[in-house]
Specification:
The complex is a heterodimer of chains A (94) and B (107).
Chain A (H helix, E strand, L loop, with lengths): L2 H11 L5 H20 L3 E4 L3 E8 L2 E4 L6 E4 L2 E8 L1 H7 L4
Antiparallel strand pairs in A: 1-2, 2-5, 3-4
Chain B lengths: L2 H5 L2 E2 L1 H12 L3 H20 L4 E3 L3 E8 L2 E4 L6 E4 L2 E8 L1 H13 L2
Antiparallel strand pairs in B: 2-3, 3-6, 4-5
The chains are: A alpha+beta (94), B alpha+beta (107).
Chain lengths: 94, 107
């Protein structure tokens, strides 16, 4: 499923809404999550999972072509952990 | 961003619904219901084993893990971990860049 398909499903289920508003709805949700993470916040969606920011320490990497050591600075990366309910849904017997 | 929002550590469904209410102009009730519906459709797709790919956000992938031997950390006893499906999330480059830039700035 891709973004446009998700928008289409929601639009089909809500014929009283303008397509444009459904697009804005879906875009707003994902945009809010990215903005929160960029602000150092967490996003916790019970039943689905939680988005957080993890800090990666700086390290000495190597240019794989030349073998030359390069400094990799510390950075923050987005992280998602699936919630309990979603994990259970994926592993229901039968 | 205002101070009240900056101080808040964790966003929830209610905050997403509030953003939808603000940005799209639907009622608060309907905003909350639609947020729920979007989340539910993503979960349902993953449950069907589908990959969910949201451009400039990231990709949710369902991966099949085979059985392996784990250990009860308390007793040291070996226990089999049953085969299972897990969700992994790969953030898009856009998201990675924005999260890295935003958090670098705040340091």
């Amino acid at each position: 499923m891709i973004r446009s398909e998700l928008i289409q499903i929601i639009a089909d289920e809500n014929p009283h809404l303008y397509q444009k508003d459904v697009e804005r709805l879906v875009n707003t949700i994902f945009e809010e999550i990215v903005t929160a993470l960029a602000n150092g916040q967490r996003v916790e969606l019970r039943g689905f999972g939680a988005f957080s920011v993890k800090k990666r320490d700086g390290r000495i990497g190597r240019n794989p072509r030349t073998g030359e050591p390069v400094e990799v600075p510390p950075k923050h990366v987005p992280f998602f952990k699936a919630g309990k309910q979603l994990r259970e849904r994926l592993n229901r017997a039968g | 961003m205002d101070d009240a929002k900056a101080a808040k550590k964790t966003l929830t469904r209610a905050d997403l619904a509030q953003a939808v209410f603000r940005e799209v102009g639907l009622s608060k009730n309907e905003s909350a219901e639609l947020v729920e519906s979007v989340i539910e459709h993503v979960c349902a797709a993953l449950e069907r084993g589908e990959t969910v790919k949201i451009s400039s956000f990231g990709t949710f992938l369902v991966r099949q893990k085979s059985e392996r031997i784990g250990r009860n950390p308390k007793t040291g006893e070996e226990v089999p971990i049953t085969p299972r499906r897990v969700v992994s999330f790969r953030p898009s480059n856009t998201m990675k860049e924005r999260v890295a830039a935003g958090n670098r700035q705040r340091e």
